[in-house]
């Protein structure tokens, strides 16, 4: 590199390479790819090193606990654990309402899953516990199997249980099955499945879930009795019931909810604004819960104003119990999307903080950790657990460095469950509903993404809106499926209809850009450079050929047919001139014959297809070379190979030189293995770079012009000129008309010529 002025320049002096000449000058390393049997053998072969690595991978705690800085990190973890514990307790109580369960089970969810994630999780910052979307999805299954009105599902495990116990059984059975799905996906290394849930899809889905959550909590805020509903359009039916019974609103519940929402909302703004100055965010949810409990108990809201309260809180923990296999059978279709959503949310949040604090997380290990956590928690009657962004933000911003903070937050939930649960008995459920609604701010604010997505990426906007609307109207499980379908359709649309372009050279460089994007581009006369930024496969090969024809300005197959017709007309006229016979109608020529290469071996002249007699009309071909840029083509399938081969032969047969540049080495290997090359399509048309191909083409064109000038000079001095006269019959007047055209004699060449 050399610095010239303010720019650094470089000069490369090397030969022009084709792929063939490059392979001759540089020896390629021969690599052997492992067979499936070889990979299986490596997988089952064990040694001490692999066992150690497996232990470190399955128990990430071993890795970070060895480097734990006790004096430096422990104070921050303690403060963070206490702060996060307060938030986790309040959210557990509130989100249990979404799962249609008593609040005590929210405290179970804040405790048990965290115990196992502490050992198996790779994230050091996420707070594992209840998440509103998962709680709502579990609640939908609970309501379907144990509805508010009518008989529960025909499940033998329900015998002898009251409605609350039946709902608890359904909730922890669904959670256990969710954990089985997550654990299985982690063991089989399918953590990559989360990549199919794009940020746009997750944003639209969680926004729809926030709308569902908001509607479901209105009955608590208003203090009216509305039975929960599930299924398609359940949100519309729920709103209808709410507006029908809105005249029975409990004013005490409504006022208390509004006050709590306003206060919590304002304090959260203060926390966000002064996060750098506040060592610990103000635990406003816990403060308002304590105040609400005291006021409700002191003024006896339950008896005086008819306010619904939490009621009896079970002290301590119940023994572990097995889930119901019958519930597994009834809820398998709902448990799988719950498992996917839980992992997707947890992994995405964990990835944010892993990048921020410069450590790595393992998606498959996270699946294992969440699976074990949910299975362990479900054994003790907790419901679906993942993480919540707001709770994780508290844990990280208040000084948490490791999952020691998470363990302390779980201990906080245990203390409340064992010793302090009775203090929460007078807590109004409207307070919990208000806390749920105010925590939806982040998810509801995602509606602001719609204008941005519409301006920047319309297909992504369609995914967002489609997922959100489907999830709101059809339910979260069907909405997620619809969102995935819409997302896959946009991927198909992008690959099936890519933005093809014609490239030109930026003068003085070896750079080639879309000729529509820059001024003063250099485009050699008679040359087209075509680029397709997509894989070529069965679904877009026809689109590729259409765009290629549009780029060059003519259909090569049509040109080939016209030329073959004209050539046979010339041959027939020549034959009839020799025999001095009357010209009759031309014989029928099949379509297959017209698509074969033109063969002028029997004609002692070279046909200039751009200078023909007026009575022979063949469309002009204004290019002599076509360069296809395959730098963005990642794969070709068999159907595309056949279509590509046909398209290339159509151009070659009308004497357009075809070059393919920057083709991936694995695609070239596939072309060889599929017998792509023959006497027309040769390996010499492949070049490593676009600049190599263009320079080679210009060199060949220069040499061809030189040879043409020498032949013309020699022919003029020999005095040999052949004049060919074409005679055609006028059908109406039965007269002969003649027109002569001079052609230069050339040596008979192999194959066919223009």
From TrEMBL:
Any GO molecular function: secondary active sulfate transmembrane transporter activity
Gene3D superfamilies: STAS domain
UniProt entry tagged with the keyword Cell wall biogenesis/degradation: no
Alphabetized InterPro entries for the sequence: S04_transporter_CS, SLC26A/SulP_dom, SLC26A/SulP_fam, STAS_dom, STAS_dom_sf
Keywords: Membrane, Transmembrane, Transmembrane helix
GO CC term, one of those recorded: membrane
Annotated signal peptide: none
Domain STAS: 517-697
SUPFAM superfamilies named in the record: SpoIIaa-like
Keyword Transmembrane tagged: yes
Top-level lineage group: Eukaryota
Subcellular location: Membrane
Pfam families referenced in this protein's UniProt entry, alphabetically: STAS, Sulfate_transp
Protein topology in the membrane: Multi-pass membrane protein
PROSITE patterns (alphabetical): SLC26A, STAS
Chain ranges passing through the membrane: 104-121, 128-146, 169-197, 204-222, 242-270, 335-355, 367-384, 404-424, 462-489, 710-729
NCBIfam families: sulP
PANTHER family named in the record: SULFATE TRANSPORTER (PTHR11814)
Protein name listed in UniProt: Chloride anion exchanger-like
Species this protein is from: Gouania willdenowi (Blunt-snouted clingfish)
Gene coding for it: LOC114459220
């Amino acid at each position: 590199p050399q610095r010239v002025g303010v720019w650094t320049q470089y000069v490369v002096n090397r030969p022009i390479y084709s792929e063939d000449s490059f392979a001759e000058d540089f020896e390629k390393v021969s690599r052997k790819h492992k067979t499936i049997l070889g990979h299986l053998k490596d997988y089952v072969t064990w040694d001490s090193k692999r066992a150690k690595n497996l232990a470190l991978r399955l128990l990430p705690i071993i890795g970070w606990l060895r480097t734990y800085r006790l004096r430096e990190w422990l104070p921050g973890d303690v403060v963070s654990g206490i702060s996060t514990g307060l938030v986790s307790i309040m959210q557990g109580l509130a989100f249990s309402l979404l799962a249609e369960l008593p609040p005590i089970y929210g405290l179970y969810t804040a405790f048990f899953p965290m115990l196992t994630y502490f050992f198996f999780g790779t994230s050091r910052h996420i707070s594992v516990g209840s998440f509103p979307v998962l709680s709502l999805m579990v609640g939908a299954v609970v309501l379907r199997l144990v509805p508010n009105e009518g008989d529960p599902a025909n499940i033998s495990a329900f015998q002898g249980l009251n409605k609350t116990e039946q709902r608890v059984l359904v909730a922890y059975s669904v959670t256990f099955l969710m954990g089985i799905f997550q654990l299985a996906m982690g063991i089989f290394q399918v953590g990559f499945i989360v990549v199919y849930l794009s940020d746009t899809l997750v944003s639209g889905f969680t926004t729809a879930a926030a709308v569902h959550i908001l509607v479901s909590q209105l009955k608590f805020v208003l203090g009216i009795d509305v039975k929960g509903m599930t299924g398609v359009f359940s949100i519309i039916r729920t709103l209808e019931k709410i507006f029908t019974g809105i005249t029975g609103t409990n004013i005490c519940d409504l006022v208390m909810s509004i006050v709590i929402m306003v206060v919590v909302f304002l304090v959260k703004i203060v926390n966000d604004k002064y996060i750098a100055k506040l060592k610990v965010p103000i635990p406003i949810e816990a403060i308002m819960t304590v105040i609400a409990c005291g006021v409700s108990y002191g003024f006896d809201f339950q008896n005086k104003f008819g306010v619904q309260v939490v009621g009896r809180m079970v002290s301590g923990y119940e023994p572990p119990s097995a889930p119901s296999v019958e519930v597994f059978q009834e809820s398998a279709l709902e448990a799988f999307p719950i498992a996917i959503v839980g992992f997707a949310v947890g992994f995405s949040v964990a990835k944010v903080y892993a990048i921020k604090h410069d450590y790595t997380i393992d998606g498959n290990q996270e699946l294992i950790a969440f699976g074990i956590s949910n299975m362990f928690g479900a054994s003790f009657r907790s419901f679906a657990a993942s993480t919540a962004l707001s709770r994780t933000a508290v844990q990280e911003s208040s000084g948490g460095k490791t999952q020691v903070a998470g363990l302390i937050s779980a201990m906080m939930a245990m203390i409340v469950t064992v010793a302090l649960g009775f203090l929460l008995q007078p807590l109004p459920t409207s307070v919990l509903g208000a806390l749920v609604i105010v925590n939806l701010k982040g998810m509801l604010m995602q509606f602001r993404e719609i204008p941005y997505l519409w301006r920047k990426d319309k297909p992504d906007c369609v995914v967002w809106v489609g997922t959100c609307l489907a999830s709101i109207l059809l339910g979260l499980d069907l909405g997620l499926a619809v969102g995935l379908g819409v997302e896959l359709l946009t991927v198909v649309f992008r690959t099936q209809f890519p933005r093809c372009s014609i490239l030109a050279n930026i003068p003085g460089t070896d750079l080639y850009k879309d000729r529509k994007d820059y001024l003063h581009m250099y485009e050699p006369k008679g040359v087209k450079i075509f680029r397709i930024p997509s894989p070529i496969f069965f679904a877009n090969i026809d689109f590729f050929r259409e765009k290629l024809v549009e780029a060059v300005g003519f259909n090569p197959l049509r040109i080939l047919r016209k030329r073959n017709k004209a050539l046979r007309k010339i041959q027939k006229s020549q034959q009839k001139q020799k025999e001095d016979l009357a010209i009759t109608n031309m014989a029928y020529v099949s379509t297959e014959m017209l698509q074969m290469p033109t063969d002028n071996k029997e004609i002692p002249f070279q046909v200039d297809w751009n200078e023909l007699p007026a009575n022979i009309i063949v469309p002009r071909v204004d290019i002599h070379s076509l360069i296809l840029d395959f730098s963005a083509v990642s794969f070709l399938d068999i159907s595309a190979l056949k279509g590509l081969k046909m398209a290339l032969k159509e151009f070659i047969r009308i004497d357009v030189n075809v070059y393919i540049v920057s083709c991936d080495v694995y695609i070239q290997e596939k072309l060889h293995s599929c017998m792509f090359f023959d006497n027309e399509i040769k390996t010499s048309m492949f070049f490593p770079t676009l600049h190599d191909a263009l320079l080679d083409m210009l060199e060949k064109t220069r040499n061809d012009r030189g040879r043409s000038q020498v032949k013309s000079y020699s022919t003029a001095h020999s005095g040999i000129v052949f004049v060919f006269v074409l005679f055609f019959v006028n059908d109406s007047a039965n007269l002969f008309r003649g027109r002569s055209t001079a052609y230069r004699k050339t040596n008979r060449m192999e194959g066919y010529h223009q």
